[in-house]
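Box 4.2: Ligand-aware structure prediction
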Amino acid sequence: MRLPITRPFFGPEELRAVQLPLESEWVVQGPFVQQFEDRFAAFTGAGHAIATSSCTTALHLAVVALGLRPGDEVIVPGFTWVSTANVVEYVGATPVFCDIDLATFNVDVDQIEELVTERTVGIIPVHLFGLCADLDPILALAKRRDLWVLEDAACALGAWYHGRHAGTLGVAGAFSFHPRKSITTGEGGMLTTADPELAGLWRSLRDHGASRSDHLRHRDAGSFLLSEYNHLGFNFRMTDIQGALGCAQMDRADWILERRRELAALYDEELAGLGWLVPPHVPDGYVHGYQAYVCLFSPESATPQNVEMLHERRNELMLRLGEEGIATRQGTHSPVLTGYYAERYGLRPEAFPNSVAGDRLSLALPLFPQMTEQDQTFVVEALARAFASV
Ligand SMILES: Cc1ncc(COP(=O)(O)O)c(C=O)c1O
């Protein structure tokens, strides 16, 4: 048996979809990207959706349009993909790391306020692995201290918080369509916002700062003249090939998400008795999107003293599972442990014990819609066998 960590779900519809822009010969951002944006906005309930080349470029565009600049500080979680912090660095501002709550792997809302200084301008909560961060207290704090909240919703398609979809609560949300995500366009991202002015600015900024997209310009009379360029923009556009693929994936999104939830529920049930592996926790009022099924390796509670020993055991367990053909991964990494951030800001791991535990002890199990009940039982049995030998 060979079980990868994930598999995209592509059928004849996706194969046909990517042919359409090739046949039309319009392959850069065009009608399919527009259709994908409209479908995505309708799905999430966001007023506007703006497609980009990745979630990282979506976050980058977002902070540029929000006016982030050198000297500013932005609070980001200590356990997240490094892009969340990198986009703050790109514009010369400073990411300030906040430790996480190990029960949810999301930012610990009780620790945010003490990190707010007179230089803080925003917070980027992350909805890690498809579970929303606890946004109500974050939004309340942001309002009190006049900060913006940008949701890193890279993993959060199908993630709901008290009846609202991720990416519709802060000033904007940024989603990813990397193949590790529930739906994929190869690479790709999407910004969602309710603010029409920001949406217009983001459309321009992703396209070199153009006042009108190439597709509109070519369609309209007077296409021999270029647009106006009044902003310092980027080329962060999605291609129409990706847009067409995104539309085909949207047709399946409900089914994919439903299937992921079913599989997660079965894992929850089968793992409940293990005792040394903590399955994902879903607080009341949340719907988990299960971009990944990430557990915590926890034969004993992690402390700064035992975390490295537990880390070795978790890695040994992952090695054994690999030998049985089962791919696993650490959930994500902790930027505070990366060479760049540790050195640049002299960060000490002891200041972020839960982020370190997330980095060292998280364990993602295979999860993809094509998995069968048999596959899952095999994973659970292999976990028990592997644990007995570590
Ligand atoms: C939390 C988080 N933010 C940002 C990103 C970056 O997404 P992309 O690869 O689309 O740039 C990822 C990707 O894994 C992520 O998990």
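In the box above, the bound molecule is pyridoxal-5'-phosphate. The chain has a mean pLDDT of 97.
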